[in-house]
Design goal:
Length: 494
């Protein structure tokens, strides 16, 4: 009897294990080669309805067609999903730097891209359109001859526009980072037309009655696919699930959800009037979202200024210490960081660090590190000037009393030098506050990036940027008043 019970228990255990293995076979196949349970997706969330921020009530959740597909894929394969963001032209470099496992951003698998990254099967096909002012009669590629045409940098539309420019003489292309910027260039009259994907063009045309779009006949197959690092083990399991989603109608349901409804102005009011009329009521529901960028901007500025001041002080002391090798190194460092663009330094730190060190530096960390290294170079010259402006009798008196050099510098010289250079340091801090907008290029959602996200969602440009400009101005004025009060306090102690 006991043997029968033992055999029965064994059969039940084996059956249960079999059910578990069968039910999770897909996740095991996908997860085992990676050795992790979370997939990182990177996207450019300024491209509704593919991916954009849901800004209602100040939320910072990325939603859209691609996001729903990614969540379904992760769920079916047994992974958790983490979403990062970047400008579109930074997506492929992020894959190559192993910052993400895959990209979804309405990306087309062109032969040029396939040389550097792998792609899944096509999951959605769209068409290119010519977006132009109403009545401009720019409907066919040949109509663009002799015109200025805008495109988003790094997109399939840019490549297709280059092909059109070779066929028809006189076409001048203007590349910009984001589609809202391209559309604004049309409205301002700097370009005559733009080439934009039809699903996105439809939204801009609905939100801007002075614009129209016409579909360009496609000469070759195109569409959106998922991008992976070269040789990724995720391609095969992703393709299997995508095909299942096509077969069982899941993809069609998502297409109907995101493309069949009016996505021209998610969560907003009626379209804006034509012309230069400004309607700030359209961004009122999104003001909390923009304001949430203030703490991050202030944190970034505070860290960069504090660390930059420390690093700049060290560099300035190396320059005046009298030890030639150290002085040469400090001067060479300053020369390099003052002689190269800050945006270039930011891109190198963010994209090169994972490849060179294996450390996956975050966008905020990369921004703080870059601005610390850069501001330290500038501050070192300011601090050096302040130190050398202190009367030499101060140091001579301290040394005659037997005060050690470093203690003399810390207690006697530096306090006087910092008091003298306070206005210059305030200027550097204000510059860092405004330059913090540069970190938006690597996906940090600070004030400017928040305003750009709202503009992309609402298919408008001026209103959110003007509001962001007002925020920066208020912060700078507050900082200026605080510095003035500190200067008056220091004068009272003299």
């Amino acid at each position: 009897m006991k043997k029968k019970k033992g055999w029965l228990l064994t059969i039940l255990v084996v059956a249960a294990v079999g059910i578990i293995i069968t039910g999770h076979s897909n996740s095991l196949k996908a997860a085992s080669p990676l050795g992790k349970d979370t997939l990182t997706m990177i996207t450019s969330p300024d491209y509704p309805p593919y991916e954009f921020y849901d800004t209602k009530g100040g939320d910072r959740q990325i939603v859209g067609f691609d996001i729903d597909i990614a969540k379904t894929l992760a769920e079916k394969l047994g992974f958790k999903l983490q979403i990062m963001e970047s400008d579109f032209n930074g997506l492929i470099p992020s894959l190559q730097a192993n910052r993400a496992d895959f990209v979804m951003a309405g990306m087309t698998p062109t032969p040029e891209r396939q040389k550097n990254i792998d792609f899944s099967i096509i999951y959605y096909e769209a068409k290119d359109t010519i977006v132009a002012p109403k009545g401009s009669n720019l409907k066919q590629p040949q109509d663009l001859s002799g015109k200025k045409v805008g495109v988003q940098l790094g997109t399939i539309q840019e490549q297709n526009a280059q092909k059109i420019a070779k066929k028809f003489a006189g076409i001048q292309l203007k590349q910009l980072n984001r589609v809202p910027e391209v559309v604004q260039e049309i409205k301002s009259g700097r370009i005559d037309a733009a080439i934009i994907e039809d699903t996105v063009a439809k939204g801009f045309a609905q939100a801007n009655p002075d614009l129209e779009f016409n579909i360009i006949p496609s000469e070759e197959a195109s569409g959106s696919a998922i991008a992976f690092p070269k040789g990724s083990s995720l391609v095969e399991p992703f393709n299997k699930v995508l095909q299942q989603m096509k077969d069982d109608g899941t993809l069609n349901k998502l297409v109907a959800k995101w493309f069949s409804q009016n996505t021209a102005n998610p969560g907003s009011s009626t379209p804006a009037k034509g012309g230069f009329n400004l309607d700030f009521a359209r961004i009122l529901p999104d003001i909390p979202f923009i304001l949430r960028g203030i703490p991050l901007t202030l944190l970034f500025t505070l860290l960069s200024v504090s660390l930059g001041l420390i690093w700049g002080t060290i560099l300035s002391l190396l320059k005046i210490i009298g030890i030639k090798p150290l002085t040469w190194v400090a001067n060479a460092y300053t020369s390099v960081f003052r002689g190269t663009p800050l945006l270039l330094q930011l891109a190198l730190v963010y994209y090169a660090t994972p490849q060179l060190t294996g450390y996956d530096i975050s966008a905020l960390q990369a921004g703080v590190l870059t601005f610390t290294l850069n501001s330290g170079a500038y501050m070192s010259e300011t601090i050096r000037g302040g130190i050398q402006a202190v009367d030499k009798g101060q140091s001579e008196a301290a040394m005659s009393m037997g005060v050690p050099y470093w203690l003399m510098m810390w207690d006697v010289i530096l306090p006087q030098a910092l008091k003298n250079i306070l206005p210059a340091l305030v200027n550097e801090t204000i510059g860092l506050l405004k330059d913090s907008a540069l970190v938006s290029t690597i996906g940090v959602v600070e004030i400017l990036r928040s305003a750009q996200i709202v503009g992309a969602n609402k298919y408008i440009y001026f209103e959110p940027l003007l509001f962001a400009g007002l925020i920066y101005y208020v912060l700078v004025m507050g900082m200026t008043l605080g510095a003035s009060a500190l200067e008056r306090r220091l004068r009272e102690s003299e």
